[in-house]
Amino acid sequence: MRTSTKNPYEIFIIIIVTVIVIIVIIIVIIVMIFIVIVIIVIIVMVIIIVIITIICHSWICREPGLDSALYAHSGNAKPGGHWGHRCDIVIVIVIIIVIVIVIIDIVIIIAIVIVIIVMVVIIIIIDIVIVINVIVIVIIVIIIVIVITIFIIIIIVTVLIVIIVIVIVIVLIVIIVTIVMVIIIVTIVIVTIVSVTSAVSPLCPLGARESCGDIGGHHLDLTWGFQLCPGVSPDVFDGVPGVPQVCKDT
Question: Where are the transmembrane segments (predicted)?
Fold first, then answer.
């Protein structure tokens, strides 16, 4: 009974092919994990954009809209407010950052796929050149090591860049949302103090719609924290019923 024995040359080839196959499998696993992370990041960014949009376009950040009879009478009716527009700028910046991250991720994934294809081709070449001199195999091994090293460096640098960008974006969003929340809280405190301390004032306190007429014309000014009577000249109020003298004098 014959027993087949493999020579060292064949064992060397088998080891090389096995190592390359293992590396390809590891790279595929890394790619799948990377894709999952990218999807999670995109979902988180979308949720953050939705939250910012809701906050910035809610009633607390808007000036009088088309339902304001006084603004409609004075010809100044307009939907939304300057805070909404500023938040829109932040949202656009976040969307641009998300698009950049997605483009970078797509490029990385394409590069990884190319590397995998190259490694598969190298395996095929190794099988073809089994009968060739060992020096050729050594050269191929060196090339493989160089390619893998470069690939690992690219992955590490890219992951670090993506992590840094994500951290910066999250920090900026947290800072912006915190500032908006602080402004809102301070505004509510100031308006409450003004409402309690001033019985009749040129500044219409929050909730005192009867002081300026129930026409939906006064609004919350987030810049100064007061609910201002809309319009600064008496002629704005001409022809609008139910406007008391306290607003005409502002």
Answer: 12-31, 38-60, 89-122, 129-155, 161-194
